Amino acid sequence: MLRPSDRLEHDGVRLRRWHTEDGDELLRVVSESVDHLTPWMAWAEGYDRTRTTEFLARCDTDWQDGTAYNYAILDSGGAIAGSCGLMSRVGPGGLEVGYWLHPGHTGRGMVTRAAAALTAEAFRIGADRVEIVTDAANQRSAAVARRLGFVEVARNPAEPPTSPARQGVNIVWRRTTPPA
Question: What predicted TM-score, i.e. pTM, was given to this entire model?
Answer without folding.
Answer: 0.94
